[in-house]
Input
Amino acid sequence: MTQDEAKRLVAKRAAELVEDGTVVGLGTGSTATLFIRELAARKLKIRCVASSDASHELGLSLGMEMHTLAELPALDVYIDGADEVCVAGGGLNLIKGGGGALLREKIVASAAREFIVVADSTKLVEVLGKFPLPVEIIQMALPLVEPKLAELGFTPRLRQKKDASGPYVTDEGNYILDCWSTGIAEPESTAAEIRSIIGVVEHGLFLGMATLALVAGEDGVKEYRG
Ligand code: 5RP
Output
């Protein structure tokens, strides 16, 4: 099974879990996009809040009823992809933000009763941190935050736009530093250290937030509960 086939399989499975009448948070990225398309095809009576402008626009284009958090501050479920999924130790810990939407993703996820992460099996890791950890920062704080992240052992790189025309800017107008490391052995303490840096808006460690992970691979879709 290719990675794209696995993404499609898990996106379909997640869409099947959504019930009529619920308020659904829509994630961001290629797996989330497949999920949104599958969900729209089911023509359920649901209301949605998206974690990015791109997913909001996609939902609208597919005829979904899109809202803001101001209109619907409590969600039944948030469904999104991840860059890394760690199930070691019984919990569900993630790295997210590869698509640049980590801040809104964390906000929308925090508003949901359930958070289902959808991933292909290449995202499963024993230790988080092979994927560079995205850290969203205030633009003017770049020269202060970068050395502080380096002091923590990371090698931060300012994310660039795909067309290389300048730094990537998030939906909230911030920069992203992609922080390379040899692995994040203590994610809780690392998350606290990053958060304490003035100028950091949010980081891509989603620790203990997901309630269920659906992971697709050669053996079909496996479930891991948080
Ligand atoms: C976007 C994200 C995505 O969920 C993550 O990057 C995974 O993306 P994909 O489904 O394209 O592999 O966190 O900010």
